[in-house]
Amino acid sequence: MVIVTVLLALPAYQPAWPEFYLALADLHTALLVEGIPFKRCSVPRVAYLDETQNLLVHSFLPSGADHLVLIENDHKFDPREMIRLIRRAEREGIDCLGADYPKKAFGQGMVCERVPGAEVIDDLVPCNYLGLGFTVISRRAIEALVRSSPETAFAYESGPSNGQLAYSVFESVRQDGRRFEPSVVFFSRLRKAGITPMLDTSVKVDHIGMHIFTEKDAT
User: Fold this and answer.
1) How far apart, in whole angstroms, are the C-alpha atoms of residue 49 and residue 183?
2) By three-state DSSP, how is residue 62 classified?
3) How far is CA 24 from CA 9, 10, 71, 134, in A?
4) All domains of the chain, ordered by start, with CATH?
5) Distances (CA, A) of 55 to 59, 91, 118
């Protein structure tokens, strides 16, 4: 079995629910049992999610890890589901692989936006947009993105420079009178770099708000 290393990237932009901490502790154990080396990085006390995500990418690039594993702290999950995503991404060479989950409101549907007309094959379907709450992104994908979008490069005037450029791969963009959210811009840039986000429809994740929203709450 190929040994991969992962950076667990935890954008702690809001108080976490106990269900998240319990799942995260179980994930640490599962990674150790599976023999998957990992590092953990969280960014607390940053008000803006896009800046938190950019700081996590900044930590990932020099880390040597093969995959950036983004898990937002408002999710309840079975750690075996993340192990499946990591193993499948590496085994099948999928550079961006995630799970769908419901929006935090009854009857508002799921987060991911599938490519119109795309078929689900072996539980995989291409997407224009994934939620970033439970996603595995390869080093190849991040490096391809920053090469194809050099305008994202900048240097911190102070703070976590580590002697290297940073990249605002997550940022809001205004175009033709419309404002595009940072995650939408990220996936647009990823597709521009030739990377197709893929959804594994077999992986189930819950979304925690005032209620633990499951897939059945989406309709």
Assistant:
1) 10
2) coil
3) 11, 10, 9, 12
4) 6-141+195-211 (3.90.550.40)
5) 6, 28, 33
pLDDT of residue 93: 96
Beta strands in the chain (DSSP E): 6-10, 38-42, 67-71, 75-76, 96-100, 113-114, 124-129, 134-138, 153-154, 166-167, 173-175, 178-180, 198-204, 206-208, 212-213
Intra-chain end-to-end CA distance of the chain, in Å = 40
Contacts of 65 (CB under 8 A, 6+ apart): 5, 6, 7, 38, 39, 139
The answer to whether 7 and 69 are in contact (CB under 8 A) is: yes
Q: Letter for the amino acid at 64? A: G
75's tokens:
């999710």
- The pLDDT tens digits of the residues spanning 141-195 come to 999 999 999 999 988 776 655 567 889 999 888 888 888 888 999 999 999 999 9
Low-confidence ranges of the chain (pLDDT < 70): 1-3, 12-15, 45, 47, 158-163
Tokens 């629910």 found at: 17
The model's pTM: 0.91
Q: Is the dihedral of CA 80, 83, 88, 91 positive or negative?
A: negative
The CA–CA distances, whole Å, from 161 to 151, 155, 193 equal 18, 7, 25
Look up residue 119 and give its two tokens: 């078929």
